[in-house]
Amino acid sequence: MKAIGLTRYLPIADPASLLDVEIEKPTAAAHDLLVRIEAVSVNPVDTKIRSPKPEVESAPKILGYDAAGVVESVGAAVSLFKPGDAVYYAGDVTRSGSNAQFQLVDERLVGRKPKTLDCAAAAALPLTSITAYELLFQRMRLDPDGADRGKSLLIIAGAGGVGSIAIQLARRAGMRVIATASRPQTVAWCTRMGATHVIDHREPLSAQLKALGFDQVDAIVNLADTAKYWQEMGELIAPQGHFGLIVEPSAPLNIGDPLKAKCVGIHWEMMFARARYKTPDMIEQHRMLERIADLVDAGELESTHTETLGTINAANLRAAHARLESGSTIGKLSLAGW
After folding, report:
1. Phi then psi for 337, rounded to 5 degrees?
2. CA spacing 20 to 30 A to 295: which of 21, 72, 204, 206?
3. What CATH number has the domain bearing residue 296?
4. What is the DSSP string of 1-42?
């Protein structure tokens, strides 16, 4: 079957960084689905894994951690899906990825594709939706259905894939969302996603928040540079507030006062943790994707897909990686069809 893989870890400008390859079609067993891939999306995890390093792979490594497609066959233990079902998922970073015509994925990490979306728009949702949902509602313990209505949430870097979904989910939960963005296009995007206010993360946050009437905020999600904003986050967070983090800090962090004095909760989110460690609650990701599909089909959540860069091949995937590495991407980029 066709796939896009790598054997060397090279800069994306190098044509050998991602290659069109032929690999063996896998067979479904146990809880696995064999999915015929119709569309994929790209995420920072793809570019980080592919980034230059000296290792050489003996067989092509297949990346890709967002997909939509159709179930081709199922393993003997599968109970949630059947052949012919349209599905979407982010999968498992420890297994072969979705940049291939067929992929094996555990059914407990898979949801039915939203009926109102095509495959390109559906493929843009899983990783970012799971990350945002787990972070807000399972790690930070905010309520998805309104029990925290009126509380303030600062989202640093609101125009990216995770930020775009987090804004929508938090607004649906009734929270006052202040997102950060630095360009007219990203400000407009955050507003479209539902942010109550948008401020500039290139400028001190405190003064901008005070001008909007916020002396402190109840919760902060930092999707950008954890170390850069750490001190200011500590000053802005309300007593018994919560930090949500997804980016490894570039420098040591002081987790003592004022965070200790304020009894602040610090929560890390890594959406691949359940799959990597085969946790007993892996099926939570299936449930989340099912709920996301319901919200999309009800018109309560919008896909953050902004562009399809052609069919699934190495040249188009290299272009998608380059766009993502530029740091100027708004929403999500997809590839569709072979």
Report:
1. 80, 165
2. 72
3. 3.90.180.10
4. -EEEEEEEE--TTSTTSSEEEE-PPP---TTEEEEEEEEEE-
Strands 305-308 and 332-336: parallel
Q: Write out pLDDT tens, residues 75-108.
A: 999 999 999 999 999 999 999 999 999 999 999 9
Q: Give the Å distances, CA to CA, from 7 to 27, 64, 153, 178.
A: 23, 15, 43, 43
The parts of the chain modelled with pLDDT lower than 50 are none
- CA torsion sign, 91 to 93 to 95 to 99? positive
Task: Tell me: do 89 and 19 sit in the same domain.
Answer: yes
239 with 138, same domain: the answer is yes
- Please state whether beta strands 110-112 and 86-89 pair in parallel, antiparallel, or not at all (unpaired): antiparallel
Pairing type for strands 176-180 and 237-245 reads unpaired
- What are the tens digits of pLDDT across the range 188-198? 999 999 999 99
- Domain end, chosen from 233, 268, 303, is at 268
Retrieve residue 3's tokens.
């796939």
Sheet holding 152-156, edge to edge: 197-199, 176-180, 152-156, 217-222, 237-245, 265-268
User: In the prediction, which pLDDT does 329 show?
Assistant: 85
